[in-house]
Design goal:
This protein is of the alpha/beta class. It has 26 helices and 23 strands. It has three domains: about 400 residues, Malate synthase, domain 3 (TIM Barrel), CATH 3.20.20.360; about 110 residues, Beta Complex (Malate synthase G - maily-beta sub-domain), CATH 2.170.170.11; about 130 residues, Up-down Bundle (Malate Synthase G, Chain: A, Domain 4), CATH 1.20.1220.12. It is globular, with a radius of gyration of 25 Å. The chain starts with 5 loop residues before the first strand and ends with a helix. It binds acetyl coenzyme *A, ligand LL5AMS7Z and magnesium ion (MG). Magnesium ion binds next to α14.
């Protein structure tokens, strides 16, 4: 008998809303029949479930052997050595030199370097903004953030002095990106300018100009009737930059999706993007508005021909990893199905509605997170083969982006790439999860450094360098992206402008940004730096030593002051509570949480993984005790409550410690940190969110 709320499909119990979504929304128009889909879906689970389970058991087995090594070598003061890691199969032999064979990817992936935006799939309003973030106003980005001078503009009427500084800053940008043959942009009176490199002028539309540098476009919007244009000698009303070349629609770490209802909402939004029909209505500034996807942009090229530029970012979709199961589908034995298998089948089915709107080459781009080593990459490759077969898609239609964010993947990166060599479209250093796994893998080696210092330790420099070096050696240049991680301080745009230029300079062809505004500002870096040249300069470099990568960021003999320890503990617990309370009680998977100094930081499951593993590590090694942690949790709960004052949906944690699901989830995350698989936060978050939803 099928469980209540489920319907039987090809021997599986499928939650009724999911079956309905698939049959009434995703399948019609896809060319795939319902019977064939469900048979294929059931076969997928039948074949891959035991392999998936075996891969997870292998993770546990390797971790147990590493833990055992540390127990046997308590004085080692380091991570388990390379020879041991080879012996247990954690490290595998390098493949012979090879080059990836991926073909049929869009220019945004293969040829043009630029920002990559990430957006939680469950927020339609943000999703539309993210898809439309292909273009952004440089004037708005400079005016509305601290990018210019570290100061955010006061709210209120337009500040003409600040506006003049914005216009000057945009002009400086133009001087550098598109210099004139003679004179400077301040002298420009309108019309087609004589550029030092005339090929940088790409088109005109009335008085507007289209320029380009390093493959990225710049629109100069001329409007003498506009208040800003009226004050400019050439009537320049705005400078618009091609910004988010690609956007990752995230079903993973930035969402809270714990049941069929949540998964259907996620799949429906992705389908709406692929069909081009997604809309969101909301009230902003007292006005109700409906947001839709932008169309393409039409220009006349300098030779008089029509020139069409994409109005939207190339959309990629991040599936979940191999760990979690979902109650949206039950297997014949009554157990939950692997969520990653469901995501692969259903996000690909939805992407079949694209018909060239998103990918001009017909590719489907899946970002696959949290894979541990080459066998898990090979598993994803086989899974995508099977999905292609079940949906009737040509081989390697489904491309894979491999997040290099687990230690076993970093340490075996070439072998991981080799396992997916004909469909890989990116590698990316997900340094946040990677930091969490760094702590968890060597949990028993000793106490780790404070969080900020982990970021400066030997391992991370080796990790970032090797990722680029291995990618270049495998032939990524001109074929696939080499990506860098997230800028996790969404309000600190001046600091981002100063620091994130390091990403293109390092030879990375893309890097993550948290918002459309950050994409526009980060786009300036790709005008400053030619990634093609940066990559050419690094081609043939010997990868940073594996020994450096394996150097665990331990505290060693150093003694930290009580103040440092207390501050670190408070920082971690406040971030954990601030994030978890919105996750568990409101279903918000990515939040801007003010830190102790009131700087808003992007928190997601990966930052939560770091913070919870960090507290767990210091607890295990006695830098802090359970009573201290409980006292700090209680203090930080009151702080987080105060920070959320005014949110009508918010339930305070302080004073309700034993009843607040969020508080209990946060406490469990730190007290049970060592037992969590790979230090992941999903199992506890999901369990507590399900409880909160049920109540
Ligand atoms: C380790 C990892 O896995 S990193 C990847 C996961 N992280 C992410 O995906 C980060 C995504 N970013 C976000 O969710 C948000 O930017 C947050 C939570 C960090 C901050 O959100 P908020 O505090 O609401 O942002 P803020 O108030 O500054 O700006 C809101 C505006 O910016 C837009 N915005 C902010 N972030 C995004 C985004 N990622 N995509 C699209 N639009 C966005 C919103 O649409 C909104 O504009 P609107 O009112 O016109 O709709
Ligand atoms: O997914 C990104 C990360 O840093 O983790
Ligand atoms: Mg991650």
């Amino acid at each position: 008998m099928t469980a209540a709320g489920y319907v039987e499909r090809a021997g599986l119990a499928v939650a009724a809303p999911l079956a309905e979504f698939v049959e009434e929304e995703a399948l019609p128009g896809s060319g795939v029949a319902a019977e064939a889909f469900w048979q294929g879906f059931a076969a997928l689970h039948g074949h891959f479930t035991p392999i998936n389970r075996a891969l997870l058991a292998r993770r546990d087995n390797l971790q147990a052997q590493i833990d055992e090594w540390h127990r046997a070598n308590p004085e080692a003061g380091s991570g388990a050595p390379e020879a041991f890691l080879r012996e247990i199969g954690y490290l595998v032999p390098e493949p012979a030199p090879f080059r990836i064979g991926t073909v049929g990817v869009d220019p945004e992936i293969a040829e043009i370097a630029g920002p990559q935006l990430v957006v939680p799939v469950l927020n339609a309003r943000f999703l539309l903004n993210a898809a439309n973030a292909r273009w952004g106003s440089l004037y708005d980005a400079l005016y509305g953030t601290d990018a210019l001078d570290g100061q955010v503009p006061p709210t209120g009427p337009y500040d003409a002095t600040r506006g003049a500084r914005v216009v000057a800053a945009a002009r400086h940008f133009l001087e550098a990106a598109c210099p004139l043959a003679e004179g400077c942009w301040a002298d420009w009176q309108g019309g087609a300018p004589a550029l030092a490199d005339p090929s940088q002028l790409r088109g005109m539309r009335g008085p507007d100009l289209l320029l380009a540098s390093n493959g990225l476009h710049i629109e100069l919007i001329v409007d003498r009737n506009h208040p800003i244009g009226a004050a400019h000698p050439a009537g320049l009303a705005d400078v618009r930059l091609e910004s988010a070349l690609s956007t990752i629609v995230d079903l993973e770490d930035s969402v809270a999706a714990v049941d069929a209802e949540d998964k259907v909402a996620a799949y429906r939004n992705w389908l709406g993007l692929m069909q081009g029909t997604l809309e969101a209505s909301f009230t902003k500034g007292g006005r109700t508005m409906t947001r839709r996807l932008e169309g393409d942009r039409e220009w006349t090229a300098t030779d008089g021909s029509d020139l069409t530029l994409k109005g939207r970012a190339l959309l990629l979709v991040r599936n979940v990893g191999h760990l979690m199961t979902t109650p949206a589908v039950l297997l014949p034995d009554g157990s939950e199905a692997f969520e990653g298998l469901c995501d692969a089948a259903i996000t690909c089915l939805a992407a079949m509605h694209d018909r060239g709107r998103n990918s001009a080459t017909g590719a489907i781009y899946i970002v696959k997170p949290k894979m541990h080593g080459p066998d898990e990459c090979a598993f994803a490759n086989d899974l995508f083969d099977a999905v292609e077969d079940m949906l009737g898609l040509p081989r390697h239609t489904v491309k894979i982006g491999v997040m290099d964010e687990e230690r076993r993947t970093s340490a075996n990166l070439a072998a991981c790439i080799h396992a997916v060599r004909d469909r890989i479209f990116f590698i990316n250093t997900g340094f946040l999860d990677r930091t969490g796994d760094e702590i968890h893998t060597s949990m028993l080696a000793g106490p780790v450094l404070p969080k900020e210092r982990i970021k400066q330790a030997t391992w991370i420099a080796a990790y970032e360098a090797r990722n680029v070096q291995v990618g270049l050696a495998c032939g990524f240049a001109g074929r696939a992206q080499i990506g860098k991680g997230m800028w996790a301080a969404p309000d600190r745009m001046q600091a981002m402008l100063e620091q994130k230029v390091a990403h293109p300079n390092s030879g990375a062809s893309t890097a993550w940004v948290p918002s459309p505004t950050a994409a526009t500002l980060h786009a300036m870096h790709y005008h400053q730096v030619s990634v093609a040249e940066a990559q050419a300069a690094r081609m043939g470099e010997t990868p940073a030593p594996l020994a450096d990568l394996l150097t665990v960021p331990l505290l060693g003999d150093e003694t930290l002051s009580n103040e440092t320890i207390a501050h670190e503990l408070d920082t971690n617990l406040q971030a954990i509570l601030g994030y978890v309370v919105r996750w568990v009680e409101q279903g918000v998977g990515c939040s801007k949480v003010p830190d102790l100094a009131d700087v808003g930081l992007m928190e997601d499951r990966a930052t939560l993984r770091i913070a919870s593993q960090h507290v767990g590590n210091w607890l295990l090694h006695g830098l802090v005790g359970e009573r201290e942690v409980d006292a700090a949790l209680a203090r930080m709960a009151a702080k987080v409550d105060a920070q959320n004052f005014g949110d009508p949906a918010y339930l305070p944690m302080a004073g309700r410690e034993d009843r607040s699901p969020a508080y209990r989830a946060a406490r469990a995350l730190v007290m049970q940190a060592c037992e969590q698989p790979s230090g992941y936060t999903e199992p506890l978050l999901h369990a507590w969110r399900q409880r909160a939803k049920a109540s």
